[in-house]
Amino acid sequence: MALFTKFLLSIKALLTALYLYHASSTHFVYLNTPETIKKPGIIYKNNYKQNTRVRYFYHYKNGTDKKQSFTINTSKTVKNLKKGSYSDQSPEKAGTIATKNFMYAKPLDAILNCSSVLDPSETISGIIEGDFQKSDSIVYKFGSSNETMSSLPFYQNKYYFEIDKEVDYDIPSSFRLGDPIPLAIKGQYGNDIVVVINPKKSGILKVSFSPRGGAGLIIFENKGKIFITNMKPAGKKFDSVVMYVEKDKKESFKFIPIGGLNYPIELHFSLHSLITSETNLLSQ
Question: Does 3 score more than 50 pLDDT?
Answer without folding.
Answer: no
